[in-house]
Amino acid sequence: MTNTRSQAAADASEMKEQYTLGYSSQTIRQLQRRTAAKEAGFLLPHLSAGMCLLDCGCGPGSVTVGLAEAVAPGQTVGVDIEPSQYRSAWSQEAERPNINLHFGAADVYRLPFAANTFDAAFLHNVLSHLRRPLEVLKGIYRLLIPGGVIGISHPDFSGQLISPADPLLERDHELYWRLVEHNGGNPAIGKHQRGLLHDAGFVRVEADAKYSTIATQDGVRMRARHGGRLFGGSAIAQQMINLGWTDRTELEQITAAWRKWSEHPGAFMANATVTAVGWKE
Ligand SMILES: C[S@@+](CC[C@H](N)C(=O)[O-])C[C@H]1O[C@@H](n2cnc3c(N)ncnc32)[C@H](O)[C@@H]1O
After folding, report:
1. Which CATH architecture describes the domain 5-279?
2. Atom of ligand 1 at shortest distance to CA of 32?
3. Domain spans of the chain?
4. Three-class SS string for the chain?
């Protein structure tokens, strides 16, 4: 796949940070399928009842609710820069009186908490959208008590595997990559997480990586529909067109390429997710 990082990084250097995925109901529905067992399974063994936990960039909060169950009766706080994201999770909060969960609006660059407040912190798919991830991690380090633990999990799209190959699907990858970078993020941040936690001050940092695969008929069809939607009429597509990187004709060709790929009996796709856990001394 073409790596356009240097060009895109240059393009982005003067630009503001922007959350690439946006807040469409479709995107929110997708995020709501996430669970703590799946997305935070690497951190759960390090959590225990009574801990006070911070979930930064919690989105619709489906993972946050599971984390709150793991530390109850300890308090869990989910924060996101966009309050509409976690509104859907409020009902779950009310339905589960056994958990101690609160949501609030906050920018991860300016978290409104005192030093040494939390026993644990979690970030899932947030740092990949931020221009200054190290600054955020240093801020969270301050908020943790000595002995506190942080768990972070982000994709690394430089490890994407796809078959059968198609130049239009490579173009999809290249366009999305370039847009994330243009908006201030890093689509290949996964591999850097251990180093980032170390640089933020954490000791005994452990990291791991896993591939999530799309290799069933239903999975392949769903991925193709997702690809079609992203490059069909979404805000992401519009942003790419406004930037002059592509046009409707090419995006329709990409959508058709996804459909063709999904009809291939051997269609396969896999992406790497890297997790890292660190402790404050
Ligand atoms: C891909 S979503 C992940 C949501 C959630 N962690 C999950 O895995 O389901 C990224 C989230 O980060 C939030 N976000 C982006 N920039 C932020 C910032 N500067 N401060 C707080 N949240 C931010 C977005 O609003 C969005 O809800």
Report:
1. 3-Layer(aba) Sandwich (3.40)
2. 9
3. 5-279
4. CCCCHHHHHHHHCCCCCCCCCCCCHHHHHHHHCCCHHHHCCCCHHHCCCCCCEEEECCCCCHHHHHHHHHHCCCEEEEEECCHHHCHHHHHHHHHCCCCEEEEEECCHHHCCCCCCCEEEEEEECCHHHCCCHHHHHHHHHHHEEEEEEEEEEEEEEEEEEEECCCHHHHHHHHHHHHHHHHCCCCCCCHHHHHHHHHHHCCEEEEEEEEEEEECCHHHHHHHHHHHHHHHHCCHHHHHHHHCCCCCHHHHHHHHHHHHHHHHCCCCEEEEEEEEEEEECC
